[in-house]
Amino acid sequence: MTKGSTDQHILIVEHDEVTSDSYARMLRLQGYTVRTALSAEDGLREIQSSPPDAIIVDFRVPDFDGLEFLRRLRARSDQRSTPVAVVTGDFFIDDTIAADLRALGAEVRFKPLWLEELAGLVDVLLKPVR
Fold first, then answer.
1. Which of 5, 27, 66, 98 could form a disulfide with 59 if both were Cys (CB 3.0 to 4.6 A apart)?
2. 9-13 and 54-58 as β-strands: parallel, antiparallel, unpaired?
């Protein structure tokens, strides 16, 4: 696992403040600059104001789900290749939804994510950027 650099910005879109704060704290300890959003709409606004290097989005985020978030993100020409991971506590994602997520270029991971798993996920997301 490689430690991040402060010029790598990660956006976490997660409705649960405790989870969002935990992820942010863990990634900051790894050297990343982290912003958070508590809803899909807030996440899209954050992206518009300051595009991140990678995004971690909860599948069950308010406003609309992670799949719709990803569709809206990919509809923006400047966000078609931003690395995204969709994280969920739903261990039985419908095969069609899982295929759609992969087709839109998302990594899919299951909660809970501990420090090593989260840092490893970000490493995977940022690997092409390095």
1. 66
2. parallel
Q: What pLDDT, on a 0 to 100 scale, did the predictor assign at position 1?
A: 45
What does pTM read for this prediction?
0.91
Closest CA to 2 of 129, 86, 127, 128: 127
DSSP sequence for 14-81? -S-HHHHHHHHHHHHHTT-EEEEESSHHHHHHHHHHS--SEEEEETT-SSS-HHHHHHHHHTSGGGSS
Q: Which residues of the chain have pLDDT under 50?
A: 1, 130
